[in-house]
Amino acid sequence: MINSELISFHGGHSGQFCCHAQDSLEDLIKAYISKGFKAVGISEHMPPPEHRLIYPDELEQGFSVKDLGDRFSRYFFELERLKKKYKSDILIFKGFETETVTGSPALVRSLIREFNPDYIVGSVHHLNDRCFDYSRQDYEAIAADFNGLDAMYTAYFDAQYKMILDLHPFVVGHFDIIRIYDPDFEARLDKPEIAERIQRNLSVIKELGLVLDYNLRPLAKGKKMPYLTPAILERAKALGIRVVPGDDAHSKEQAGMFVDRAVQSLKDMGFSTNWPRPRCMTPA
User: Fold this and answer.
1) What region holds the PHP domain (predicted)?
2) How many of the other CB atoms lie within 10 Å of CB of 248?
3) Would you tell me which CATH number, out of the four given (3.20.20.140, 3.40.50.720, 2.30.22.10, 3.40.190.10), belongs to the domain 25-269?
4) Over the stretch 244-257, which tens digit does the pLDDT of each residue have?
5) 41 has which bridge partners?
């Protein structure tokens, strides 16, 4: 177990290694230390498998697949340097966040072999290789292609299920991010064909001994509810799934933001705050 009440396993996106973030990775680490963190997991985005999957902000800055791969290598070297530099102040777990696109499972395994991370965060940001959380416009266009949000949700939870079975990520990232631009998400998540998939995915998370990300990014954007919804948290609690805060920080100001509130919420619900130590569980 980890000797730190404050924790984040999904965080540490920095402007140094992520186009839609700010500040250096070292500034983020120093921010965690200043806010009382004794341990933190850093999980920058993996590079894309091919050119067509490069994010728009990366294309705007002229990045190629090779550039992004080289930047990812620099990320791990810098993370190792910071881990050693600040070892007396904070325990840093080295990780990365996956994508769920064509070619990503093989690339994830290759990156694990090359960089030997402490753990990975398994996330789904794409459906049929199209990113649904980049903008409301993209989200609505993808929903239209699925002939509605209900089918889009079921496709998301099916993609997540496949990702979980394939990668066994120690942390399952922002489990219900599919609701990002849906004002009626609470009712939609209760629809039988969606609720059944949620329960199926939670059951396999429990079976594999994985951790759910209590993702606080929506709060930093002014939303009222983190990922996970209270109803999904209750289901996770009933199954005995471990839940760990993730600030999903994209700047030094966001590092550790709302984590104290999240820890108290988890305590109030009866979740353990004896945080598990991350490990890489992906099958070879």
Assistant:
1) 13-215
2) 28
3) 3.20.20.140
4) 999 999 999 999 99
5) 93
